[in-house]
User: Fold this.
Amino acid sequence: MSRAQLATIYRNLEEYYARRDAEDGMVTSLELVWHGGEPLMQPPQYFWDTFADQDEIFGERPRRNAVQTNLMLLDEERMRLLVDGFDKVGVSLDVIGGLRVNIAGRDSQSKVIDNLRRLRAARQVGCITVLTARNVSAVEEIFRFFEQLDVGFRVLPLFDTDEKGQTSGLDITQQEELAALAQFADLWLGSDQMERPPAPLDEYAAVAVRHLVGNSGPVYRDRREWLPLILVNTDGECYTYGENYGETDWSIGNLMTTSLSEMLAGQTFERCASAAERRVALNCLTCPFFKACGGTFIAETEQRERDHDTQEAMTCMARPMIEHLTGRLRTVMPDLVRDRRARTLAAVTTDRQPA
Assistant:
């Protein structure tokens, strides 16, 4: 996206949220996530320029910029950008598996680890590890790597990219995924250093804690009332989380040409909202954890990540993990109300605050 295109998107967002905030006396905070490809292929000045445009257009509105990078490029200017420019930094690193290679086909991981150590010395970072057939049996090694580095991380099971042959031989079964996540959960519970479990287990553990102490979780939010997340393609086309990203029939509109108000009043957005509600109604209402969960895991699961056991019912990957964590938490955190880690997990955050 060009600087001018990004500025158009910012003005579109600010116009909408300024009006909404004026109507209900709330203040909306924004988080802009720069994703790839590889964002740091852009020259650092690209980001400094667009950050300046944000200052001008958003003014005093609370906002953060996050970036997800493979961290292959880390010269002095990019280090300064990551330390002083971005509010959050995520690094893609599998630890084991040899899947991330340079253009010559050589494993790039040792270079990325060196860069990660340099960056970690200057600021907090998070990581994403893709779980594949090459590393699914090395869960403890992966966990100990991040534990020693004192870095929080997300486990992202490999999913079908719809590109023929791209994931051949790397797929893992649902049973392998669940076994790996359970092992990550147990390693976290036995760790004195890592306060939060790797995502998405942090969200599953939060539901388990709320369930055990009898607290309600965040109620599923009607997307018509408030849309917490918008995915924006490089052409400006927008998608809601959980629907078919990249398929034009599911685009709710274009932020470069259409006001956000019009997009959220459109027929495609209504179809997206209805589809999310239908998934929750069909799959969540009889779940014992629904009160503590709210159904977000089912509502916002992308189509390519869904596992179906019938035409209408979906296999919720969260439920077996919440069940596992509930049993383990009863044992290792018997006094959940007073446990610091449990209180941290159970906290509910929001992107809107009273003015």
Residues 1-92 form one domain. The first strand starts at residue 26 and ends at 28. The two ends are 33 Å apart (CA to CA).
